[in-house]
Amino acid sequence: MIAFSLRDIESWNRFYRANFINSLSGFKSACLIGTRSKSGVANLAIFSNIVHLGADPALIGFINRPKAAAPDTISNIEDTGVYTMNHIHPHMIEQAHQTSAKYDSSVNEFEAVKLNMLWRDDCKAPFVQESRIQYRLSLADIIPIPRNGTFLVTGYIEAVYLAEDLIDEDGFLPLEKYESITSLGLGSYYQPQKLMSLPYAKP
Amino acid sequence: MIAFSLRDIESWNRFYRANFINSLSGFKSACLIGTRSKSGVANLAIFSNIVHLGADPALIGFINRPKAAAPDTISNIEDTGVYTMNHIHPHMIEQAHQTSAKYDSSVNEFEAVKLNMLWRDDCKAPFVQESRIQYRLSLADIIPIPRNGTFLVTGYIEAVYLAEDLIDEDGFLPLEKYESITSLGLGSYYQPQKLMSLPYAKP
């Protein structure tokens, strides 16, 4: 095997190291997060570090970079308590990726990247009309990760919208049928193909 | 579109809801975490909620369920400060999945599921010999997520081992060439195929 020590990794230039470390930790569930600011500006940004925290109550988390680097989504969520998560399919990857550009807070990324806002009556945050799987969350906690200024933002699922009902009999949502993609590193996108499903494991 | 309200979701039985919510949040980077207990018992368990927190220093997080449900990995990490992460390829999925069974703390899951331990001189925790991508971490913080008793465990990457050098020129690690898999829900495994790589986005 080939070994890299911490000293090796630290010796790499920051772009090489960022690409390597960002891909080392594996495929991520890239998703578009929709919010609205206090002053009414819609915001859309791609996030890839999303975790399942619990099913009852249904609690999801995502990692937000330090506020200096990525201020809009987290401050909108702090202000309104509401956000949406929207899956990405192959025909919207370029637009989804483009939301990672550092637009000014006054810019509506939906307009900048040409995705359509979908407003629902009961929700202060916009959904992405093109997304086949959309869900609405209410903020639970913003948990600082002290070592590097990132945050774990946790929220409760309040409603789920599916383009069509492709749910398996046991509740499993076969994301490959909705063509939801996964991401790797800073800008690579993949389509997963199912290998197998295994039952609950017992000793 | 089909809409499910929180009331709908809460009305489902717990298995249906667990399957649905676990898959809704997207594809995850399943990985085997190797640890050793104070008394010397090796432990191996599959984890799927893994996040990239930063590249400099290289900081990775994973979600550990409440201690009553999943005690061994987190308590071994608390005791020794060291753990390994090991990618999963298609020929070891059944064994990797089987580590999710509730074995007693006295059981060495490597032996129970027939994966080989790889001990390296400088590391108190075992690697998985069959894994093509392995890395060693030192504990940074165990951060409680108060809403449901889960934890975000963060650690610094200390060393990385690759079966062969397939790193792209820019540092990107093309996991599809190592056949690293992704998981969905409680027991489904997928092979990602690359769709595209996009450059750093600018406004």
Task: Summarize the helices and strands and which ones pair or pack.
2 copies of one chain form a homodimer.
Chain A lengths: L1 E4 H6 L2 H11 L6 E6 L5 E6 L2 E6 L2 E7 L7 H9 L1 E5 L6 H6 L10 H5 L3 E2 L8 E2 L4 E13 L4 E13 L19 E3 L3 E10 L6
Antiparallel strand pairs in A: 2-3, 2-6, 4-5, 5-10, 6-9, 7-8, 9-10, 11-12
Question: How does this structure look, described?
Answer:
2 copies of one chain form a homodimer. With 203 residues, chain A is of the alpha+beta class. Chain A contains 5 helices and 12 strands. Chain A has helices at residues 6-11, 14-24, 72-80, 93-98, 109-113; strands spanning 2-5, 31-36, 42-47, 50-55, 58-64, 82-86, 117-118, 127-128, 133-145, 150-162, 182-184, 188-197. In chain A, the strands form 3 sheets. Chain A has a 7-stranded antiparallel beta sheet. In chain A, strands 7-8 form a two-stranded antiparallel ribbon. A two-stranded antiparallel ribbon of chain A has the order 11-12. The radius of gyration of chain A is 18 Å and the shape is globular. Chain A starts with a strand and ends in a 6-residue tail after the last strand. Chains A and B meet through strand 1, helix 2, strand 4, strand 5 and helix 4 of A and strand 1, helix 2, strand 4, strand 5 and helix 4 of B. Strand 10 of chain A pairs antiparallel with strand 1 (2-5) of chain B.
